[in-house]
What does this fold into?
Amino acid sequence: MELRLYAEDPARDFAPSIGALQVFRLSEQGLRIDSGFVAGDRISIHYDAMVAKMIAHAPTRAEAIARLRAGLAQSDIIGVAHNLDMLDRILAHPDFASGTIDTGFIGRNAETLLTPKLKPSPKVLTLAALGVLAVEEEAARTHASASADPYSPWHATDHWWVNTRPTRVFEFHHEDETYAVTLAPAADGWRISAGGAAITARHAKLEAGSVHALLDGMRLSASIHRAGETINLRHAAQSWRLVLPDPIARAGEEEGGDDRLIAPLPGQVTQLLATENQNVARGDVLVILEAMKTVFRLTAPRDGRIETISCRVGETVREGQILLQFAAEEDEAT
It folds into this structure.
């Protein structure tokens, strides 16, 4: 049985994803992996979105599925969107397990296979908080070793604080929800409140890009990678993208809102369907972008007048680049 791993987003109509592979870790335990990528490589706009094949040989369908699910649970890709989670949900579906599927299988089960509405569990939130702490402690140790006074208490990672209770509170954002996680040091670890649950954590450590801990006596682990405010975590074959806002870094940020059209991924502008000073309606196609043999029609985020166009046909644009700017609504009213 073979799985094809793609740099694409199933929740966005399988849109290809482009960027640097910050983490590219595929389990080879009992599996064959065919891939030409390693961590640090870039997925470009010029090739197909497939990044690997994961192949299992077993006497029965059930055993092959079990091997592949175990492999997916021990694998992680960070830096681009991927279909690992979707593949695991397909393998877990009873119709797939029994082999009673047809070409309409994914379409009939799109809501559960492609866009499930999942919320991070207390254990996921706890692993995220412990992972952030572990990353901070590792950075503190590195800083201390390079310091002129490596034994200063200001470099301590034992949660010693001055004139305050040694309790940490993290507020993770996931989609439109905020989840508070409180960690209070205990004699042998942490007392944690997360998602309405009380959890005891012991023996937390960061090792080879994964956080490991005993949560209420159960050994759990998750791969974790932090880039600025973004926490990418993968646990039990499910990927999570959490945001941990930095109030200092966010102070004074200006929000673009819906006054501009931004490239959702790198690609080449093949058509411009609007001109400066043109009035457009929300949903009108304004720019056509091509990436990885796929055409993307970028539409107006609101009704309004286009003030400036910042791209041209044939230009290769980067993800997040402003393609055009709308006139401010107060200017349009005058």
About this structure: Residues 279 and 304 are 6 Å apart (CA to CA). The two ends are 64 Å apart (CA to CA). The chain is about 20% helix and 40% strand. Residues 260-333 form a domain with the OB fold (Dihydrolipoamide Acetyltransferase, E2P) fold (CATH 2.40.50.100).
